[in-house]
Amino acid sequence: MEDLILVIAKALVDNPEDVRVDVREGDRGTVYALSVHPDDVGKVIGKQGRIAKALRTVVASASVKSKKRVIVDIIS
């Protein structure tokens, strides 16, 4: 799952070397914290959050078989 998020995020940004994903297991489920360069935050979020919503939908669809809740947080 981490690799999927990395591939998608690196394709969207201008600084792919600054893309990082931290994985944390918590009460809410598995949390993937996506960190990008401050100049690229808008590209990952998109207009009105459309890119972020699409990213979360793809990750949620890929995690259906594991039956765990998956959360993608975007931080700069």
From TrEMBL:
What keywords would UniProt list here?
Cell shape, Cell wall biogenesis/degradation, Chaperone, Cytoplasm, RNA-binding
Tell me if Magnesium is a UniProt keyword of this record: no
Tell me which domain of life the UniProt entry assigns to the organism this sequence originates from. Bacteria
Which InterPro entries has this protein been placed in? Answer: KH_dom-like_a/b (IPR015946), KH_sf_prok-type (IPR009019), KhpA (IPR020627)
Record has RNA-binding as a keyword: yes
Q: List the Gene3D superfamilies hit by this protein, alphabetically.
A: 3.30.300.20
Principal location: cytoplasm
SUPFAM superfamilies, alphabetically?
A: Prokaryotic type KH domain (KH-domain type II) (SSF54814)
Q: Which CDD domains match?
A: KH-II_YlqC-like (cd22533)
Tell me where the signal peptide lies: none
Localization, per the record, is: Cytoplasm
- Subunit and partners: Forms a complex with KhpB.
- UniProt similarity note: Belongs to the KhpA RNA-binding protein family.
- PANTHER family per record: RNA-BINDING PROTEIN KHPA (PTHR34654:SF1), UPF0109 PROTEIN SCO5592 (PTHR34654)
The role this protein plays is: A probable RNA chaperone. Forms a complex with KhpB which binds to cellular RNA and controls its expression. Plays a role in peptidoglycan (PG) homeostasis and cell length regulation.
Q: What is this protein called?
A: RNA-binding protein KhpA
Species per Swiss-Prot/TrEMBL record: Paenibacillus thailandensis
Q: Which gene encodes it?
A: khpA
